[in-house]
Structure formats: structure tokens, C-alpha cells
Design a protein that fits this description.
Number of strands: 11
Mean pLDDT: 95
Low-confidence stretches: none
Helix content: 25-40%
Distance between the termini: 44 Å
Strand order of the largest sheet: 8-7-6-9-10-11
CATH superfamily of the largest domain: Glycogen Phosphorylase B
Structural class: alpha/beta
Strand content: 5-15%
CATH architecture of the largest domain: 3-Layer(aba) Sandwich
Number of domains: 2
Largest sheet: 6 strands, parallel
CATH class of the largest domain: Alpha Beta
Radius of gyration: 20 Å
Shape: globular
């Protein structure tokens, strides 16, 4: 059995998809598993013990690069293919590979339409991104279960980086904060992050975000904040989360880093319906509002008369108490 798994993006989805090779290996330990993803996300899969080879798609090479990659993949003569992305690029690859056994992750577009447009939820509850990625494998007689953490494996270079940060800033222990998200409506209000940090003055916080998230500079006013926005790559960020006591995060890819490494996390789940983590190590904070979800990815617009009520009603004091409860265990 020689398997190709396709998942190009996003950060969170690729991270959750790392459970797929582990499930396959649990039933078929001699299977040879390959994984294809975007070049900028390939480091997330690079050290996974169940993955034989990671193939990289460079988006800058366009259609010609996609055809070249497909030709290289075809030479591998895969016996099984799981398209865990199901977009135009993955459709082209699976069509041209002529793999004898092919699975495609269902998109469930009609269910999504009913949920976002009319708040009529026909999805299996609770939401679970990993369950939706793993359940299709049952068509290969691989019964669903969630492989235990860790499913995100880091190299020594990333771990050395995290150790160096702790040394340079004289950190004994820290809580990682992820105040950004792909859309502004998915972000817990910035003033709430200020209040949370102020409520725990003896606690060190490490802020992680992308280089474009310059709004986090406002958090630099706090003496107990080490702001590494734009200064750590994906695996370095994962290593900092692995070394931390806890992650507090919006609905974003870093949340799934913690989940796949078995680290405690607090997650703010707001306007979007599909980013939910799948492990009990994550405490989900959300509000049951008639307007949720308001959009597929959280891009809005907000239709609640109390703007962003799904997140603004989660107070800093509530989060502080949850943090204290987790740290006291």
C-alpha cells in the first residue's frame, strides 16, 4: 500500500491533517505514506514519523509547477490517494494520477449553506475538524479514531530556538498568546488582551503572530510581555507553544499546534463554524447566539446589534479565572 495524502492549506487544516497518516499506520503499519502540501507549510509535516516523503507545491510556479509536481507524483505509482483538500489543484492531481483507490473529502456545500445562511445545523455535533478529515478513511475499512497527541513533531533547530528565547528573556515559564486571526471579526478585542495581561502581572506572556499583525505592538507596553510577532517561523512558534504552560488563542492555526502537541489551550470561537479543535486538552469558550455562525470563515459582516457579541461577551475576568483553574491542576 502506497498512499498519497493531499492537503495544501491552511495552517490549521494541514496541522489537523497530520492525524491522517497516523490513523492509516495504526491499521496498516507497512503502508508507505506520502504527503503533499504547500511549500510554505511543508515544515509542519517534515518530521512526522508516519510520513515517508513530503512533496511541496510552490505557488509561485503557477500551473506549470503544478503539472511538474503531478508528473513527479505519477512516477511514484501510488496505490491509494486521499484528497483531503478537494479544490481545483487537488482535483487536477487526482485526475491525472489514475490512482486505483481514491478518496475525496466531502465538501458538504449544501449543509454549509444552510448553516451560514439560515443557522440550520445538519452537521455532526460537536464540530470537529479532525473527525471530518478522518471519517472518509472508513471507506478503506479504517475505522475512525483520533490518534493521540503528539501529531505535530518538531526538529531540534526549532526546539533550540525556543530554549534560546527562554534563556535570553530569562523566562521560567510562560503563557503563549495568539491575538491574531485571518479576519478581524475572529479576534478577541485587543483591549481584552490588555486587561488579561494586567490581571496576571507576575505571569510572563509570549505573543505570537504573523509579520503583518502590527496591531500587536500595542501590547509592548506591558513589562511581562515578550512580543515575537513576525519573529518566529511556523515550527519555532510551535516549539514555543510546546514549551509553554498554556496557549490562549483566537480561532487560528496556532490553536491546532497546541492541540496536536497535547498542550492545554483556551480557544475563543466566534463567528466561524469550522475551526473547532478536537481534543479535550482545549477549553472552548463560545456563546450560543442565534446569529452564529455569520459567515464561512469569519469574514462577516456582523449582523448582531451588539457588534461582535460572540467574542466581546467573553470577558477578560472569565478568561483569567479559566487560566488560574488550568494552572492549578
Amino acid at each position: 500500500m502506497k498512499v498519497l495524502i493531499i492537503r495544501f492549506s491552511s495552517i490549521g487544516d494541514v496541522t489537523q491533517a497530520l492525524s491522517i497518516p497516523s490513523l492509516i499506520k495504526a491499521y496498516l503499519p507497512t503502508a508507505e505514506i506520502h504527503f503533499v502540501t504547500r511549500e510554505d507549510l511543508a515544515s509542519l509535516a517534515a518530521n512526522h514519523p508516519a510520513i515517508e516523503h513530503v512533496w511541496k507545491l510552490d505557488r509561485k510556479t503557477g500551473f506549470a509547477g503544478l503539472l511538474k509536481l503531478t508528473k513527479e507524483l505519477r512516477a511514484q505509482k501510488f496505490t491509494h490517494l486521499y484528497d483531503a483538500h478537494n479544490n481545483l489543484r487537488s482535483f487536477l492531481i487526482r485526475t491525472l494520477l489514475f490512482t486505483p483507490q481514491t478518496l475525496v473529502k466531502p465538501m458538504m456545500r449544501f449543509k454549509r449553506f444552510l448553516l451560514v445562511r439560515f443557522q440550520k445545523n445538519l452537521f455532526e455535533k460537536p464540530f470537529s475538524g479532525q473527525r471530518d478529515l478522518l471519517k472518509p478513511l472508513e471507506k478503506w475499512n479504517l475505522k475512525f479514531f483520533l490518534p493521540p497527541a503528539p501529531q505535530l513533531y518538531l526538529d531540534e533547530k526549532a526546539k533550540t530556538y525556543a530554549n534560546q528565547v527562554y534563556h535570553d528573556f530569562k523566562i521560567k515559564d510562560a503563557i503563549v498568546l495568539a491575538p491574531s486571526a485571518s479576519y478581524a471579526l475572529k479576534r478577541w478585542p485587543l483591549e481584552y488582551w490588555h486587561q488579561l495581561i494586567q490581571s496576571l502581572p507576575a505571569q510572563k506572556f509570549i505573543v505570537l503572530a504573523g509579520p503583518q499583525d502590527t496591531f500587536t505592538e500595542e501590547l509592548n507596553i506591558h513589562q511581562n510581555v515578550i512580543n515575537l510577532t513576525g519573529k518566529s517561523n511556523l515550527t519555532e512558534s510551535a516549539a514555543l507553544i510546546e514549551k509553554s504552560k498554556l496557549l490562549v488563542s483566537n480561532d487560528t492555526g496556532l490553536l491546532h499546534f497546541a492541540e496536536q502537541m497535547g498542550k492545554p489551550a483556551i480557544a475563543f470561537m466566534g463567528p466561524a463554524p469550522f475551526g473547532f479543535p478536537s481534543r479535550p486538552s482545549t477549553l472552548i469558550l463560545e456563546r450560543d447566539l442565534k446569529c452564529r455562525p455569520c459567515s464561512k470563515h469569519g469574514q462577516g459582516p456582523c449582523v448582531n446589534p451588539n457588534f461582535q457579541d460572540c467574542l466581546r461577551s467573553i470577558t477578560p475576568n472569565e478568561v483569567t479565572q479559566k487560566i488560574k483553574g488550568i494552572l492549578s491542576r
